[in-house]
Design brief:
about 130 residues, alpha/beta, 6-stranded mixed sheet, about 25% strand
Amino acid sequence: RKEKILLIGVDDSSSVGPRLHKEFVANVLPAALRAERTVVVTFDQVLREEIHTTKPKDVLRQLKFLAGAHSYTSAKPVFEVADRVKPTAIVILTDGFVELPNKTYNNTLWCIPINGKKQPWGRNYVMDISW
């Protein structure tokens, strides 16, 4: 039996802040609590943190926003982690203005604000909040 792993990517660039993060946590927590293991990563131009946990509630609520990159954000580091940990699903909080990897990961759910940019693959979930 394959372990149910949820990979959560949190955009730590300047356009994503505490208000958007709080809404995201409220939306993603039920899924995270059902996973056997959760990997939480933060990113801007590069991978900032990688936390493996069985207690996602604590990790998600305690993330510190470094407000990293101000002009360029790449989601590629999240998918590099995905290639290593082989998650069942990937959920990414972002404004959507990100560089994408060359291959698609259809098990991805993009959580974006109302005024964010929808992604060309995976599923887009537009949160009822703007940044």
